[in-house]
Amino acid sequence: MKRVTRTFRCWKSSGLVLSLAMTGPAWADKLTTPAPTPLLPVVPVPVLPTPDKTAMVKGALYHPDWNLFNAGNSGASGFGVVNGYGQARWAEDWSALANTPRTQRQKDWFNRLKYVKLNTSGSIWMSFSGEERLRYIFENQPMLGYAGKTNASRVLLRNQYGADLHLGEHVRAYAEFLYGVAGGSNTYGYQTGAQRESLDLQQGILEVKGNLLGAKMGVIGGRQIFLDAPVSMQSPRDLTNVQQTWDGFRGYAVWKRFRIDLFDFMQTNKLPQKVFADGTNYSARLYGAYTSTALPAFQFMGQKSQMFADLFFLGYLYNGAAAAIPAAASGSLQKGSSRRDNVGLRLWGNVGPFSTNLTGIFQGGEFRPAQASQRTRPVLAYAINGSITYTRADWAGKPGFGVQGDLFSGGSTRSQDGAVGTFSTPFVPLPYYNDMSLSLTSQNLIGVGPIANFTIRPTLHLKLHVPFFWRASTQDAVYGGNSKVYNWRNNLHGGFTGVMPYTQLSWNFAPHWAWTHDIEGILLSRGMRDVGAKEGTLYMQTLEFKF
Questions:
Q1: Tens of pLDDT, residues 67-104
Q2: Distance CA 404, CA 352 (A)
Q3: Which part of the chain is the Alginate export domain (predicted)?
Q4: Which of 26, 37, 7 is nearest to 504 (CA)?
Q5: Which domains does the chain show, CATH number per domain?
Q6: How far is CA 89 from CA 65, 124, 372, in A?
Q7: 502 strand-pairing partners
Q8: d(C-alpha 277, C-alpha 262), whole Å
Q9: DSSP 36
């Protein structure tokens, strides 16, 4: 209790507490604001004019109409959440403004930039987007004290602008430019290219699309963020100034009840930090296929229910620090390269007032040591993730209460020639998913805890999450974000790691503006403290403007 009291006092002195809520399912026949769930991240909510009546009925709110895959604010389509503005700005479609009365369009000055006709018929048009984001992060013991800094204050400014050119119904080109600035005191991690970025092309795509075989099909090539994977596996890395992007191709086809996405990418190299110097990192590859099937709708507790069954394969090829695994000697690592073959099944959607999500993944592949004298080892790992939230939209505050549980398998550092049992997520799982401080990551980890969401006002959202963590295998190391393998191993006793209570509050105080604060406490087990790990607090404040 003394540690809990001490941590909450530290929260109070940091300036307490607002943060980023997460949007939940918005089913295809509804345009009402859904209660938040932990499944999908939020985007700032602008004041939007009413789209044309057809789009309104179908549920296509400034994104292409994906029919049943409009669910989850278009997140079911595989192109990320679009709640007015999208995680991927090229996933937005503002052509509905062409059929919107002028009096409605004029309610928002920026609408003149969202749909700009370039010919008389309007078949050629352009849309502009922009974001200015100022973020402050305070950590008194970053990375459980392992970062070698105390009271780290980081200030991050992101300037990101894009232009989306539509050449008729079948061709579209999008370009997005980024400039990132980072400063502060007692800083760390600025040398990686994820925080500081000279002016460069963040995204640049060419899309060719059309209707074929009864489906909406398309091919997207170029530099892009990729979101068609479980948030426990990878994310666009939005915690930093510079999002994670990929260079390559994806092809998609969306029928009424089934969709498929095929992709092959190489990671964008954000170093060196020079103007228009970003290249391609050929040592990090992501490839595979993702399918989703909309199951038949049904009624439960008087509410329409819609579930989706997703079957997917994700392949990882990578080396460097992300691929290194613990060696037998305490504090040492075995370098090499890894191939991870992920076969997974996800069942998600809503069952009446319950938002559900269950994902199971088997991870095979191999680890190839850098030293030719050492034998190649197979990979046998797995992950199980699930959450369920009960929402009462008819109660004050539209509360949602639930539980989230995760299991990422661990291995054994004592075995240096058998199968590698540690699940690996080298491409940045969603930071808000379990631990925003990145003190822990989705390897050798068991996490379970309650969640609660409240819509205090239509523009004010609150979320609480209190996950408790254990090591899945006490014979394996403790893993942190950014490919960190902690030295605490042989002297660490017990599986319990700690608890990290997390509070979020998000306020869209004006059109296009969002003010968010996040706060997380880090309370560790006695075993962790005995080996030198340090408890701490993270506080993050973000002011964001989007159009």
A1: 999 998 899 999 998 887 899 999 999 998 888 888 88
A2: 18
A3: 125-521
A4: 37
A5: 67-122+131-546 (2.40.160.100)
A6: 16, 18, 45
A7: 465, 520
A8: 28
A9: P
Question: Residue 353 is encoded by which pair of tokens?
Answer: 């007032």
526: exposed, middle or buried (C-beta count within 10 Å: 0-12, 13-18, 19+)? exposed
Q: Which residue type, as a one-letter code, is found at position 282?
A: Y
**pLDDT, tens digit, for every residue of 195-254?**
999 999 999 999 999 999 999 999 999 999 999 999 889 888 999 999 999 999 999 999
Q: Is the dihedral of CA 437, 442, 444, 450 positive or negative?
A: positive
Q: Which is nearest to 186 in space by CA: 147, 242, 241, 146? A: 147
C-alpha to C-alpha distances, 167 to 161, 220, 241, 331, nearest whole angstrom: 20, 15, 31, 56
Q: Is the peptide bond before 272 cis (omega within 30 degrees of 0)?
A: yes
Which residue in this structure is represented by tokens 């990090």?
284
**Whole-model pTM above 0.70?**
yes
How far are the Cα atoms of 91, 302, 309, 312 from residue 360, in angstroms, in the given order? 28, 30, 12, 11
CB distance 268 to 258 below 8 Å: no
User: How many CB atoms are closer than 10 A to CB 171?
Assistant: 14
Give the gyration radius of the chain's Cα atoms: 23
Report how far residue 365's alpha carbon sits from residue 382's, in angstroms, rounded to the nearest whole number. Answer: 12
The tokens of 24 are what? 């939940």
